[in-house]
Amino acid sequence: MDAMALLTEARAAGLKVNAVGDRLRVRGPAILEPLAVRLLDAKTEILAALRDEQDVVIPPPESCRMCRSGHFWRYAGGRFICNLCHPCPCPELVVEKITLAATIPSAMAALLEAHGWEPCSANFWSNR
Ligand SMILES: [Zn+2]
């Protein structure tokens, strides 16, 4: 079985598979341990497959339908997720962040910040 097929199977079963630096992180319910062990046995191939996924170009989204924010982030292989409605829970898993140009009027952004919203730091956004 090739690495991508194994990765797909593992995710479908409910495992979360991520590359953290040159390490492979597999998380999920204990019952899936045999599958997790297979992933870890194929670590080199799985890491390569994860890297290939990151190379896939994901088209940037429109501004968020819910909040009109232009701040988005995504996991490897994932779609962009609104950083305002769904802030990234774990920054090390983020492979890309983007900010769409001028999607929040500055007065609105100031109001949001006054109520505790913190835009991510500038150097964390890859595509300004
Ligand atoms: Zn939103």
Short description:
By secondary structure, the chain is of the alpha+beta class. The chain is 33% helix and 16% strand. Zinc ion binds next to loops.
Tell me what you see in this structure:
With 128 residues, this protein is of the alpha+beta class. Helices cover 33% and strands 16% of the residues. The chain has helices at residues 3-13, 33-41, 43-55, 106-114, and strands spanning 16-20, 23-27, 71-74, 81-82, 96-99. The chain has a three-stranded antiparallel β-sheet with strand order 4-3-5, with no helix packed on it. A two-stranded antiparallel ribbon has the order 1-2. A hairpin with a 6-residue loop joins strand 3 (71-74) and strand 4 (81-82). Helix 1 (3-13) runs antiparallel to helix 2 and helix 1 (3-13) packs across helix 3 (43-55). The chain is elongated. The chain starts with a helix and ends in a 14-residue tail after the last helix. Bound molecules: zinc ion. Residues 64, 66-67, 69, 82, 84-85 line the site of zinc ion.
Low-confidence stretches: 121-128
Give the SSE order as H and E letters: HEEHHEEEH
Number of strands: 5
Q: What is the structural class? A: alpha+beta
Hetero groups in this structure are:
zinc ion
Shape: elongated
Domain tally: 2
The proportion of residues forming helix, as a percent range, comes to: 25-40%
N→C terminal distance: 40 Å
Q: Summarize the biggest pleated sheet.
A: 3 strands, antiparallel
